[in-house]
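Sanity check. The docking grid for pyridoxal-5'-phosphate depends on where the pocket ends up, so I'm generating a full predicted complex first rather than guessing from homology. Inputs follow.
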Amino acid sequence: MTTHPQLENSIDIEEQYQVATYKKFPFVIERGGDVWVYTTSGERYLDLYGGHAVVSTGHSHPRIVKAIAEQAERLIFYSNLVYNDARARAAKKLVETAPEPLTKAFFVNSGTEANENAMKIARMLTGRTKIISFEGGFHGRTPGSVSATGLPKYRQNVRPLLDGHVYAQFGNIESLEGLIDEDAAAVILEPIQSMGGVRMAEPEFYSALRKLCDDWGAMLIYDEVQTGMGRTGEFYFAGRNGVVPDMVSVAKGIASGVPMGAVLMTDVIAREIKSGDLGTTFGGGPLACAALEATVDVIRDEGLLENVRENSKYLFAELRKMVKLVEEVRGLGFLVGIKFPSGTAKSVQQGLLERKIVTGLSDDPDVLRLLPPLTLRRPEIDFFLDALAGV
Ligand SMILES: Cc1ncc(COP(=O)(O)O)c(C=O)c1O
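Predicted complex below; grid placement will be based on this.
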């Protein structure tokens, strides 16, 4: 491995010229391949964080690279004012991954934008204002999404928050019953609360949600920015427990790291949206669309949903054997929360980093998160389990 000392000072340069909004890992990533990333000082790390659940098909998958390169040579960008072959293929591909009756897509560029648009559509079409979300949920940083975010930490310095947002208790249907009424435009939730500590509700909660929304004429929105595009071992959480929401927000992994988001919705909703109601310059750009198309193809052709199901079963079972170290293992597929005795997740993360493994924290100081590429396989899982046992 060659080293590039001149790039080492990227740390100093970023610190000097970038706003310090993140506490960063103390190394410079120069390149990646599959589930590995490589630093400028020649070290290799196992990436169980996946660039925050983004690198769905692994780092720089050759088919994604080829698709992007070929598209860039033909056409990097044109706006939504013209038809484009890459956008056409991407829209069809994305819709084909979604359960019926989610048959239409609106492309944007990020998770927060997908949520903003989903909530806007709900308010616009119902003529109502109230949005019900859940304590512990995270939906993004822009005004509407942060107002729906149920983790107070993210809302505290945002003034003013948007009107009309109320928060129910996740997993508690009575708490939702107390808030839903004839002014409820939508109920929005992360079906698995990731940032909140990888919390999942009982199956009956999701079906009760669907019924309550139907009874009151409110739209049900799943924020699948993390759970979407295969992370749970299916393309979406939507469809699980027999529940399909009216809209699904997706982003993160849908284009393997090229910025892209989308709102998937029913035909009934799409038909009510008029020309000019929604808009975006970059959403649905050809480059991102080419990356999305290749991402779906790779997930299907390489059997990555099956891989997630099979290897997560192994990972969960092995973690649950570590009874002295691990208190609880939560989540689904490759969205994994490992609960350690009080407040120790950060020191476990540090110990793993020393053993050349990157993992994520959450807003629960006891919970370490794993959000690896969907390509993670058993030898790397064993490498992680050995490292964890040694921490
Ligand atoms: C569940 C969920 N929704 C929305 C967002 C916001 O996505 P973005 O950062 O792309 O705006 C995130 C980001 O972490 C997320 O985890």
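Relevant for the grid: The two ends are 27 Å apart (CA to CA).
Also worth noting: The mean pLDDT is 96.
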